[in-house]
Design a protein that fits this description.
The complex is a heterodimer of chains A (369) and B (126). Chain A has 369 residues and is an alpha+beta fold. Helix content of chain A is 20%, strand content 33%. The longest helix of chain A has 11 residues. By secondary structure, chain B is an alpha+beta fold. The chains are: A alpha+beta (369), B alpha+beta (126). The interface between A and B is medium-sized, with 17 and 11 residues.
């Protein structure tokens, strides 16, 4: 039996094509199809229901130290309101999940975790929870994403919420005109400027409809969310990263905080960074027609397998196929000529810089932790 | 025209003219696949058996194999379609076919559905 979000009826009323995603019955796309939705977000602004994702708070003295134990990032010096993309690492330095951790106050943090990892993440946090720290699963909250170049103006026109001064990767608390308290985080998974809104579940429909009724907003399904993130080169958990990949292999070394040496799995992660990993996550761009998908072999000019795609598809912006995968580090150079084997045919491809399409978030500077 | 049009349970249509079958995919299949992004055509001269996968149509979501309901030799492929996927929405006589196969055994066509039966078939699918 699939779970649903508080917006399930709203999606059905909009004619969404629904599909199973991490145990939830979620909108894959609405009337106009995936490519139109993708282009709408790139050119205008789209609204996503991502309430299947998990939201938790960690509260108590030592919460910052707790996250420095569970992730390679630094949190003690973070100011309230600052959000950090990071990963939970296991003892072997593999990735349990990727997540966004935001400092709400000195002793309180807010984390958004992947839908498919919710249970194991919360269990992992509980197992490692020191005395005096409290974890709360906010299952009474929905999560909406408003993504696109007009998001700031639309938020203001719809709710009189002024996010003009809110920098990228920051959160503020706000109220809608009806008095609903929400978290507004300037971040997302599309590469566009935009916000994620954490909303009480019983107000989710009200907030969704207010935004969706804005004439410049269209609802966007999870299929376009996937193609949008692929153009950005963002990894998708369970595909591009998993419990066997270290953040260094995954090209996520930038999440490692300078001061943090004591996180779980540090031995392997820091060794990978010191000595270089055997393989690396790279972007792949097909130079000929065809569609590269997850599982396709990456081969060198001698037809030897050097890696495999972990995700791939069609880029609506570039009108060609892109993907990401792991290849041996010595070949992980931008411009390296490779082949992607699709149904027995070697399609010429090259290792490409990510993002494939320039990001338009307010600032993409990977801010030092 | 529609008298010569037959359908498979895998949602191909077959337009028979003389001993040649032009094969395309139905609107139902296109609807299910969503936005199409690529078609992989077979080589001319390729021998195919009834039920073989002879082409691949890829949408944003997935790669779907296209099967031939007749054995025979590929005698034409729609190279224009590789450049303009919109053609796949057209009927056979307006270049909506993917490939043409020279029919080896006319009996292969027996058992294919006509338009009415195919409509009943798809109406029965949820």
């Amino acid at each position: 039996m699939l779970k649903t979000t508080p917006l399930f009826e709203a999606h059905k009323a909009l004619g969404a094509k629904m599909g199973a995603f991490a145990g939830y019955d979620m909108p894959l796309y609405y009337g106009e199809g995936v490519i139109k939705e993708h282009e709408w977000v790139r050119k205008h602004t789209g609204l996503f229901d991502v309430s299947h994702m998990g939201q938790v708070t960690l509260e108590g003295a030592g919460a910052a130290q707790f996250f420095e134990r569970l992730t390679p990032s630094s949190f003690q010096a973070k100011k309230p309101g600052r959000a950090q993309y990071t990963v939970l690492t296991n003892e072997k330095g593999g990735i349990i999940d990727d997540l966004i951790v935001t400092r709400l106050s000195e002793d309180k943090f807010f984390a958004v975790i992947n839908a498919g990892c919710k249970e194991k993440d919360i269990e992992w946090m509980r197992q490692n929870l020191p005395d005096g720290l409290k974890i709360t699963y906010m299952k009474d909250h929905a999560l909406l994403a408003l993504q696109g170049g007009w998001a700031e103006r639309i938020l203001h026109e719809t709710f009189e919420i002024n996010a003009h001064e809110l920098p990228y990767m920051h959160l503020m608390e706000a109220r809608t005109p009806y008095g609903t308290k929400i978290f507004v985080s300037r971040l997302g998974y599309t590469g566009e400027d935009g916000f994620e809104l954490s909303v009480p579940a019983d107000k989710a429909v009200e907030v969704w409809e207010a935004l969706n009724n804005h004439p410049e907003v269209k609802p966007i399904g999870l299929a376009a969310r996937d193609s949008l993130r692929l153009e950005m080169g963002y990894p998708l958990y369970g595909h591009d990263i998993n419990e066997g990949t270290s953040p260094v292999e995954a090209d996520l070394s930038w999440v490692i905080g300078k001061e943090n040496k004591g996180f779980i799995g540090a031995a392997r992660v820091l060794n990978d960074r010191e000595n270089g990993p055997a393989r690396k996550r790279v972007g792949i761009r097909l130079m000929d027609k065809g569609i590269a998908r997850e599982g396709a072999e990456i081969r060198d000019s001698q037809d030897k397998k050097i890696g495999e795609l972990t995700s791939g598809g069609f880029s609506p912006v570039l009108k060609e196929s892109i993907g990401q995968g792991y290849i041996e580090s010595k070949q992980a150079n931008i411009g390296e000529k490779v082949f992607v084997n699709v149904r027995g045919r070697n399609i010429p491809a090259e290792v490409a810089a990510m993002p494939f399409v320039p990001a338009r978030t307010k600032s993409m500077k990977k801010q030092a932790a | 025209m529609s008298d010569n049009l037959k359908y498979t349970k895998e949602h191909e249509w077959v337009a028979v003219e003389g001993n040649v079958a032009a094969i395309g995919i139905t609107g139902y299949a296109q609807e299910a696949l969503g936005d199409l992004v690529y078609v992989e055509l077979p080589e001319i001269g390729k021998k195919v058996g009834k039920g073989d996968n002879f082409a691949v149509v890829e949408s944003v979501k997935t790669a779907a194999e296209v099967y031939t309901p007749v054995s025979g030799e590929v005698v034409a492929v729609n190279t224009a379609m590789a450049e303009d996927l919109e053609l796949i929405k057209k009927p056979a006589n307006q270049n909506g076919w993917i490939a043409k196969i020279k029919i080896e055994n006319p009996s292969d066509l027996e058992g294919l559905m006509d338009e009415k039966k195919y409509k009943e078939f798809t109406d029965g699918l949820s």
